[in-house]
Amino acid sequence: MNQLIISAATEGATSPLVPNVWEMGVVLVGFAVLMYIVVKFIVPMFEKTFAERAEAIEGGIAKAEQAQAEASAALEEYKQQLTEARAEANRIREEARAEGAQILAELKEKAAAESARITAQAHVQIESERQAAVVALRSEVGTLATTLAGRIVGESLEDDQRSARVVDRFLADLENQNAGVAK
Amino acid sequence: MHLPAILPWGAADGFSKQMLLVILSVVIIATFFLLAARKQQLVPGKLQFAGEMAYGFVRNSIAKDIIGGRDFMKYVPLLFSLFFFILVNNIYGAIPVLQLPSFSHVGGAYVLAGIVYFTWIGIGIKKNGLKYFKLATVPSGVPFYILPIVVPIEIISNFLVRPVTHSLRLFATMLAGHLIVMLAGSGIEYLVMQENVLLKGTSVLVLAGAIAMYMLEALIMALQAYVFTLLTAIYIEGALHADSH
């Protein structure tokens, strides 16, 4: 060991700042080879990995954002559709109500017309029946009056008492007759 | 601590251990990062995670922070290669059998500093044209009568001293650390060999000191790789934005 150092010391009698040209050549070539490998392979490989990793993270974020946007758009659409549906339902309800009211009014009108018609008809019928009754009554009253007159004439017309009796009897007969008919 | 010359390669020293270690460092770095980057999984495994941490350190903490947001990616490969090339070659000094930081031989440091020197000057010229040399040497806002003093200082400090300090800083720290650790090692060996028991005993003190120095050196090895790369990033940034300095 000591001899080695001594020999190195004597060998390096020249200044240590004077380079060995061959060593310089080896360093230059070695470094050039290393640079070539680094430029050609190592840096691109690492950068590719870094870029892919950044891409993966940012891509994931972008994808999530997109999904979020889509979801909120869908929600918005559903809300709008719901609002539209509600408006539609309201409109239909209003229409139905209006229609119902109209139908009711029509029906009322129709019923009123009908009742008026029936009333008018009844009036006509009553009138004609009354007319018939008057006619029938008139002929009957005539007959009765004739009969009554005959009876009164048959008895003495001078005796007022008698004639009153005759009238009473006639009326009673008539009543009995009517009662018998009613029975 | 040289291996015997492996190949008599025309040079005075032949194929040295330092050359072997430099080539080995390229293999180590390339293999590790190719394996780590190969899978390209979104959720990284342990190896890939370690590789990404190491790559991300240079990419974000050095290139992005110093050079800035828009055009730092162009310089990431250079900074990345520099950092790990220097780091691995320095750490050799802390690995027992290898025990030789490659940049304790000044040639390698000259080469790397030279590459950086021409890179940042090239960037400056490409970005600003020949006006770059004016921008780099004539600071704005300085009164004209001070310029005769300031301009030579700027020329010397930027274009002459900068590459020298850049390379020698790396070389000197590595050489000094290497020397201290080796010296402590041989010192311990020398003391242990002594007949005198008391003298032999003092080797324990040296050993304690050597371990402390070894730890310090390991720290400096990593730190110097960082410093060299950081300075490179600062030089490139200065060349890119020469007009705003």
Walk me through this protein's architecture:
Chain A has 183 residues and is mainly alpha-helical. Chain A has three helices and no strands. In chain A, 7% of the residues are buried. Chain B starts with 16 loop residues before the first helix and ends in a 5-residue tail after the last helix. Chain B is mainly α. Chain B has helices at 17-38, 46-67, 76-91, 106-128, 131-137, 147-192, 197-201, 203-240. In chain B, 73% of the residues lie in helices and 0% in strands. In chain B, helix 1 crosses helix 3 (76-91), helix 2 (46-67) packs across helix 3 and helix 2 packs across helix 8 (203-240). The longest helix of chain B has 46 residues, at 147-192. Chain A binds chain B through residues 1-2, 4-5, 8, 16-24, 26-28, 30-31, 33-35, 37-39, 41-43, 45-50, 52-53, 56, and chain B through 1-2, 9-13, 15-16, 18-19, 22-23, 25-26, 29-30, 33-34, 37-38, 40-42, 44, 48, 51-52, 55, 59, 73, 76-78, 80-81, 85, 102, 105-108, 110-112, 115, 168, 175, 182, 185-186, 189-190.
Short description:
The complex is a heterodimer of chains A (183) and B (245). Chain A is an all-alpha fold and 183 residues long.
Q: Major sheet of chain B: size, sense and barrel closure?
A: none
According to DSSP, the number of beta strands of chain A is 0
The helicity of chain B comes to over 70%
- Most extensive protein-chain contact, per-chain counts: A-B, 37 and 53 residues
Strand content of chain B is under 5%
Question: Which structural class do the helices and strands of chain A define?
Answer: mainly alpha
Mean pLDDT of chain A: 84
| Helix-and-strand structural type of chain B | mainly alpha
Residue share in helices of chain A?
over 70%
Please give the alpha-carbon distance between the first and last residues of chain B.
46 Å
The number of helical runs of chain B is 8
Query: Count of helical segments of chain A?
Result: 3
Order of helices and strands of chain A: HHH
